[in-house]
Amino acid sequence: MDFKIVKEMLKKILLVTFTAAVLACHAAPKPQPMVQGVNNILPDEKQALVCKEIVGLIENYNYKKIKVNDSISSLVLDKYIKALDPYKYYFLAADIKEFEKFRYTLDDDFRNGELSAPFYIFNVYLKRYNEFINYAFTQIKAKQNFNSTETYVYDREKMPWTTSKATLDDLWRKRVKYELVNLKIAGTPEDKNVETLTKRYEALKSQASKLNNQDVFQTIMDAFTETIDPHTNYFNPANAQQFNEDMARSFEGIGARLQLENEILKIAEVIPGGPAFKSKLLSAGDRIIGVAQGSGEFEDIIGWRIENSVSKIKGPKGTKVRLKIIPVGMEMSSKPVIIELVREKIVMEDQSAKKKVQTIESNGRPYKIGIITVPAFYADFKAANAGDPNYKSTTRDVKLLIDTLKNKDKVDAIVMDLRANGGGSLVEAIDLTGLFIDKGPVVQVKDLRNNIEVNEDTNPGVAWSGPFGVMVDRLSASASEIFAGAIQDYGRGIIMGTQTYGKGTVQSSIDMNKLVNPSMLQRLAALVGKNAGLTGTNKEGVQLGQINLTMAKFYRVTGSSTQHKGVMPDIEFPSIYPMDKIGEDTEPSALPWDEVKRSNFTTVANLAPVKPELIAWHKARMAKSLDYKIMEQDIADAKKREGEVSVSLNEVKLKAERDSLEAKNLAKLNSLRASRGLAPMKKGEKIKKEDNFDFILDESLRIMTDFMQVTDPASKGLVKNQGALN
Q: Could you tell me if 699 and 362 are in contact, meaning their C-beta atoms sit under 8 angstroms apart?
């Protein structure tokens, strides 16, 4: 969404050349302290520039209007150390004491683009990490006593930092022992367990050796921006590309999901409809060992980081890529097969809105209910701006699904499933709401100058006017809360689930390259290439990444912010997620809740009279429901386990605990299966996909049948208002 403040900000910033900022990259930085015994990772000039500009953006355009000072510096240091070593496995107390000298200097350093201190801290971490990985190798082959009464403390977050390396060695000895006893309990031979764990730690060491300064810089900026607020985030170039592809639900490439296995790039899945699928030349399990662009030379990608390999395989639609393949089932020593593919635009349908229809019997009558699952509020803005009439978006996808449900499936009601939907495009939240209400305000937005803009659905008419429900949970956030809040405020449908996340802030995505004069980028590219020992740069030039900057807060049409409070459902379920650990109100840097003036809007219906009856029927079913009873027990058990920080290393005791837990879970599962007329499961047997049962969804659909029965059938489930103005 283009807010006036964003336009003004970008217009102002783009007039600045940042000559001084770039030239400052040539100024002598602080000497980088070197850590002995490790290949030190160092910052580069483009990261210095990005860091400086992020400080400026935060101080001038973040909604908090915050000054980056010594207090912020102290918080950043603590968050950064915790990000590297949350359970205190690596750093020693002496390391932490040494890092204290940086506590009140990071603010000035970041303002100057100086990154030597956090990079030094990371290099110390990397040294400790490699030391303990190497120590673990010695313990994997050591003789183990699985009959001892030792205990392994796996969660040391609240414990003091260890004062000696010997104590940390002992912690790692116990960690290795714990992994070995787990493998032993699983029933595999001892020599096989040693081989399995050795490969596991070799993979960890290999991945650590591939870390680069972009990884370190991302971690540093995460600690910095999240100290300001939870949703101001910097993305390095690779992460920025992934974020934008996720938002667009599309990318350009061959149409395959890839994973790294033992240093080899492997095809995990071939996406239907893509070039790889249509060619019939690739299968899941095939391994890619080389990549060439068009008729160019092959590059051997064995041992590469997965994102580097993927960047070579992806590319603009219409371009050719050649791959060296070792087909699935063939030895790695086999002669590779060379294939050629033409890249296309791939639409990720499996991550888009989907529909299904279920029939619920109630009081002797069948009700057909359409369920639309929306995983995120996505939109391909690039395609839309280019005039593509078929650009991907949540609203467009849902509109097509509604048309099918209404005209082909002939459903009686629709339920929108927004569980675990973390949000996305604000524009999509507004447009999607417009499919269910006539014209009117949907959300209010207050910018950092306290100007309030009311964003409305301006399209007359609705796609669905019948009975409607929305499912939410603790992971439903941001755009999901705008949509659910508007549906609730208008009386347009019933909200079912748990209190939502409580994210009531608006972020604007800013391409960092657009803040810098192109000629300066060319000079910076030459400087980075020279310092890196390169003869040139890639054809895209230097990429600086992207920042999603919190620049506004949104409010419901009633004037209430969803910040902290979220949306409270009309029909409430217990939360399977810990409310005291997940949610905006658990974030120390989150903005507070507040209110603005109520908008003028006309409600669709007054549902207040029917809610008590719906709640009563829901509670009556839950009192008799075995699923509900077991869900409550599972939540209580999870709460009890939250306080556990250690585990026994005694094989007999640990196996008895595991067996008891497995037996308990199997008994619960079989009692539920018996209640649904299914055959009992045996130990180790896998549940068939068709046997999975979504209790929350099933009960939500029953609430919808109640809703249809207590409201006027002629109006298909709505208690109409007579022009009530709110």
A: no
Does residue 360 sit in the same domain as residue 440?
yes
Whether the CB-CB separation of 514 and 199 falls below 8 Å is answered with no
Whether 570 is covered by a domain: the verdict is yes
HSE (side-chain half, CA atoms, 13 Å) at 424: 27
Cα four-point dihedral sign 91, 93, 94, 100: positive
pLDDT at position 609, please?
94
What interhelical angle do 518-531 and 45-61 show, nearest 10? Answer: 140
User: End of a domain among 313, 346, 379?
Assistant: 346
Residue corresponding to tokens 């082959």: 141
Decide: 562 and 556 in contact? Cβ < 8 Å.
Answer: yes
302 is written with which tokens?
A: 């064995």
The answer to the question of residue 667 being in a domain is: yes
Residue 658, C-beta contacts closer than 8 angstroms, at least 6 positions apart: 185
Using DSSP, state whether 562 is helix, strand or coil. coil
Please choose, from the candidates 502, 499, 523, 521, the residue with its C-alpha nearest in 3D space to the C-alpha of residue 512.
521
CB 127 within 8 A of CB 92: no
Q: Can you name the residues that pair with 495 across neighbouring β-strands?
A: 470
- Choosing from 266, 345, 503, 553, the catalytic residue is 503
Residues linked to residue 413 through DSSP beta bridges, in sequence order: 369
Give catalytic status of residue 478 as yes or no: yes
Name which of 190, 238, 199 is nearest 217 in CA terms.
238
Residues β-bridged to residue 443: 455
Position 261: which residue type? E
**Residue-level pLDDT at 18:** 41
Burial of 387 (0-12, 13-18, 19+ CB in 10 A): exposed
Domain total of the chain = 4
What is the rounded distance in angstroms from the CA atom of residue 633 to the CA atom of residue 623? 14
Q: Which of 489, 570, 627, 706 is catalytic?
A: 489
Q: What gap in Å lies between CA 23 and CA 27, rounded to an integer?
A: 7
Residues in the chain, total: 726
The C-alpha atoms of residue 66 and residue 403 are separated, in whole angstroms, by 48
Spans in the chain with pLDDT lower than 70: 1-29, 519-520, 524-540, 712-726
Separation between Cα atoms, residue 347 and residue 250, nearest integer Å: 4
Catalytic residue among 478, 560, 599, 700: 478
Q: Measured in whole angstroms, how far is the alpha carbon of residue 50 from the centre of its chain?
A: 24
| Cα(277)–Cα(254) distance, integer angstroms | 9
At 9, the amino acid letter reads M
Predicted TM-score (pTM) of this structure:
0.87
Element (H or E) spanning 457, and its range? strand 452-457
The set of residues, in sequence order, having a beta carbon less than 8 Å from that of 66 and lying 6+ positions away, is: 58, 59, 72, 228
Which of 555, 582, 605 is a domain's end point?
A: 605
- Residue 107 and residue 101: Cα distance in Å, rounded? 13
pLDDT at 2: 41
Q: Are residues 335 and 360 in the same domain?
A: no
Run of H or E including 128: helix 116-140
Under 8 Å CB-to-CB from 62, ≥6 apart: which residues?
A: 228, 229, 232, 448, 549, 550, 551
Pair (142, 205) in one structural domain: yes
Strands 250-253 and 256-261, bridge-based pairing? unpaired
Give the pLDDT score at 501. Answer: 97
Distance CA 689, CA 671 (A): 18
The CB-based long-range contact list for 532-537 (8 Å cut-off, 24+ gap) reads 532/44
On the CB side of 589, CA atoms within 13 Å amount to 20
Instruction: Examine the domain organization and report whether 653 and 674 are in the same domain.
Output: yes
Buried b (16+ CB within 10 A) or exposed e, 159-195: eebbeeeeebbebbbbbbbbbbbebbeeeeeeeebee
Instruction: Say what the pLDDT of residue 498 is.
Output: 97
Query: 716 with 372: CB under 8 angstroms?
Result: no
Instruction: At 256, give phi and psi (nearest 5°).
Output: -145, 140
Q: Is residue 24 part of a domain?
A: no
